Structure formats: structure tokens, C-alpha cells
Amino acid sequence: MFKTLSFVSAAEISALKQEVLNVGRSTPHLGRKFYHFMMGILCVSLYAFFLSREAALVLLGTVGGIFMLLDIVRLKSPRLNGLILKAFGSLMRREELQSVSGNSFYILGLLVLVYFFPKPIVLLSALFLAVGDPVAAVVGTHWGRIRLTSRKTLEGAAANFVTTALISVSFALGYLSLELPQALVLGLLGGAVSTVVELIPSPIDDNFTIPVGSAILLSWFALPLFN
Fold it and tell me: Where are the domains of the chain?
């Protein structure tokens, strides 16, 4: 998935950019989805079982801040951009060639979540992005037939709802230790929230809008279940 880092010539940079450009939005991009899934599960696991709110903010602010800075600087530095293209080009979307990557939006989204929302809402919202969004994308790309928007399908939305509803029920029973009736309510609310947020069009990267939008809606409609 990742290539060995070394000096990248102008010709190689051009070829790497062309590889990224050849991957359209209609392509499943399974490597990218798997990467986001693994990173999401890692972040959720760390915050759920090892990190306090303060430690998570420090980690996101320092390590995450460094990654965000590099992401911005690479747009002005052809050599750094070439190295990043060589390492992560297989995971990039074409629009990220000239703008900050989804990783920066994800880090910013996590900072907003951890700073403003209770831990259970942070964890569940992050899981919606890590699991629900990739499932919706893969199902919609492979089996989607009924268009809801230009890029979203009914089949993908249904897959997102079922997946995130099951995640919400499991989270309620295992992490929150709720009774089954309450867990089922959270399952329905969680599935609905994740699906609605994923369907809403936005000019902002969905690595930010899905977790933050989900956290806002969960706070509005399901906060008593988290207390």
C-alpha cells in the first residue's frame, strides 16, 4: 500500500499524480476505505480504553497538528509533495492533489469532538465514520441502483443504516451497559443519525462533517441515553 520513501523526480511526481487522477469518485478505492477503517478503530480504541480527554487533546494537538502542518506545507513544497505522493498516493483522491487531505479534516473533526462532546458521543460518532461511511460507499458503488443524490444511493444508505444501527446497539450494550430496550432505541437513533448526516451534501470534507454532524444530532436526540 505504501511505497519506500526516497528522492522523487519530476517525472515520477507527474506519473504519481496521473495515477491519482485516474481514480474517479465512482471507483470503490478499497485501500483508502480500509485505511480509514483501521485508523478510525485505532483512534476509538485509544480514547475508549487508554486516553483521558486531556491526553487525547494533547495528542491530537501535537501529533495531529504536525500532520496537518505537513499537509499544508506540501502544497507549497514540490519535493515534500512528491514524497507524500509516493508514500500515500494510492490512498489519495484527485482533489487532494491541490488541497489538504481528508486526514487533516479527520484530525480537526476529532479535536472538535473531544473538546465539545462527552466521550460516549465522541466514540460512537467516530465509529459512524470509520465503519458506516465505508460500508455505504462500497455497497453503493457495487450494488447501488436507486439514486438519492448524484453520488448517494438508496442501497448504500440502507447499508449504512443497518451497520450503524447494529454498532449503536452493540455500543449501548457493551460500553454503556444499557438495558436492551434502551439499546434498541439508541440503535434506531444512531442508524438514522449516521444515515442522514452521510446523505446531506456539504462543501466540507465528510471526514469532518460525518463525525461532527453525528455528534450534534446525537446530543440533540439521544443525550439522555448516554448519561
Answer: 10-222
